[in-house]
Amino acid sequence: MKIDNNQAYNNYSNLNNTNQSSDTKSFSSYLEESKEESKNNLEEKSSSMNIDNSIKKKPSFLLDFLDKHNLFEEASISKEDEMLFRYIIDDDIIRANEMKMLSYEQMKTLKELVEYKNLSKYSNPTFEVINGKLNVENFPPQLFFELGTNIMDFSKTDNEDFNRALFETANNIEDNMDRHRFFFTMNITMINNQELDLETLIATLILKYKKLAQSKAFSSEEQRQMVQNLLDNFIKLNETFNRNKMN
Q1: What pLDDT score does 58 carry?
Q2: Exposed, middle or buried: residue 38 (CB in 10 Å: 0-12, 13-18, 19+)?
Q3: DSSP states of the chain as a string?
Q4: Beta bridge partners of residue 93, listed in sequence order
Q5: Is the dihedral of CA 205, 103, 106, 116 positive or negative?
Q6: What is the pLDDT of residue 12?
Q7: 38-43 long-range contacts, Cβ below 8 Å, gap at least 24?
Q8: How many CB atoms lie within 10 A of CB 48?
Q9: Apex CA 101: angle with CA 163 and CA 241, to 5°?
Q10: Which residues share a beta bridge with 14?
């Protein structure tokens, strides 16, 4: 099992339960309206239509950077995907409901677009220790993530069937904290068991949490449910992984 230890954006921040207006315009509506616009009006439309106009979002440092260096065009991203990505990152944050808009292929494309190793080629960051403190210059803008939505987490191995299963399973977990626990537990287990193949790794997790769920070691119903949710999600991961391997 190969794990990518060169994860980009080591200092990415998770944002807890970021609130979003219930009046947010759906992307499907946004996309249909955007298609009527000419290419010259794409940027204006993308920024003005992705949320209720009564709420003014802060400027997106990331989008400004991508536009300054023509990175959408350089990456040969389709116009439809570009509009979707602009909609999602227009406030420099990915939320759970926005991650659900992405297919696995779109998630990979967006990840490659915004990851540090791509953006740093255009910002040329420098790192220098001054008086015992790290001084960083020209660090590229970051994309932030609501808890449990870090798209950098979905390329942990060189097995596309597993990576896809991880993404699909995570996208079906509604609770942000459950999704975060799922990722955290998977990350720690993969780091500590790199000698195991993926099938054995998942089977080990299922066995561990099945025994724990059947035990009487819980001090509260909340703890028991937390373990049960982890077990259910690892079972779903295993089922999705097996289905992907057959396709």
Answers
A1: 60
A2: exposed
A3: -------S-TT--EESS----TTPPPHHHHHHHHHTS-GGGHHHHHHHSSS-TTS-PPP-HHHHHHHHTTHHHHTT--HHHHHHHHHHHTTSEE-HHHHTT--HHHHHHHHHHHSHHHHHHHH--EEEEETTEEEEESPPP--EEETT--GGGG-SSS-HHHHHHHHHHHHT---HHHHHHHHHHHHHHHHHTTTS-HHHHHHHHHHHHHHHHHSS--SSHHHHHHHHHHHHHHHHHHHHHHHHHH-
A4: 144
A5: negative
A6: 34
A7: 39/79, 42/79, 42/82, 42/83, 43/67, 43/86
A8: 11
A9: 25
A10: 145
- Say if residue 21's pLDDT is above 70: no
Question: Which residues, including other chains, have CB under 8 Å from residue 124's CB and lie 6 or more apart?
Answer: 138
> Does residue 230 contact residue 209 with C-beta atoms inside 8 Å?
yes
Q: Which of 120, 222, 116, 210 is nearest to 178 (CA)?
A: 222
pLDDT in tens, 172-207: 999 999 999 999 999 899 999 989 999 999 999 999
Query: 């097996």: which residue's tokens?
Result: 242
